[in-house]
Structures are given as C-alpha cells and as structure tokens.
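Hey,
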Amino acid sequence: MHRVLLSVLLSLVLVAAGSTGALALQSGGVEVGDLATGSVVGQAFSNMAVDLEFNALMVGGKKTWYPPTQVLDLTNQGTGGRAMSPVLIKVTNNLDGEHGFDLSADSAFAAPTSMHIKVTLKPGETKYIGIPISDLTYVTANSLLNYKCQLHGAHLGGQLLIIR
C-alpha cells in the first residue's frame, strides 16, 4: 500500500515539476494603466518613452486602429539597446463609442503561453500598456502580432512586426 501511495505521490511531483517549465515561459508581466500611476517591472510609465502609439480613428468611412502596420525594433540599435527596459505602448480611442484593443499572436502560430492583451477604451480615453522585453521575445514564432478591436469584428485592425 505504501509503495502505491509513494508512486502516486512521486508521479504527481514529476508532473508538477514538468509543468513548472511551461509556467516559466508564460507571459504575464504585461501591465495596463494610465501614465500617472501605471508601472511595469518596477518602472513607472511616466519615466518611460512611448515606443508605439495606436489610435482608433474613422478612416474612409471605416473604424480602424491606425497605423495599420507598426514595426518594433528590438535589436541593439533599436529598443533593445536601452538595457532591456520594457516597451511602452500608448492606445487612444478617438471615436465616439467604446472601442477595444486586442494584441496577440495569430492563433495558428501562437504557443499556448503566448501573450494576449485585451483593453477596452471609452470615447476619448488613453491607456498605456507596458510589456517586458522578455515577454515579447516568446510571443510568436513568426515575429508578427495582430491588433484589432475585440468588441466589433467589422472594425479594421493591423499588424505589429517585431524585429529581433
């Protein structure tokens, strides 16, 4: 009886130890807030430079996130040369109704532990998203993230290319 109990206990410990590696790769350091009080990995948003800016606008009769394409350079010559400080994204809703901002990897290429950010903005509202560089390095295999409005499927989104 003790051997069976011991083998079950050992199996549970091995399963838990095996799942710990997956948790280490899981994103989770992303923080959403305002400029005055927000922070990520101990750095206040107000002390960080904005790396990317997205605006919900009406363009050609369509509601969209502008610009439709953004590039984030994480090489030493780009954002990565700032001693691995987090990336700060500013999102602003310039529309007259609520608008969503959904940033994630394409589901066909995303790992189960990849980053997925969902923010809902009121009319005229601005929010800041702080993302640790380590979370951006594991988000997708093809270095491409998609952004869209999760509240309205007909609104136009875009793509964020990450250069590593």
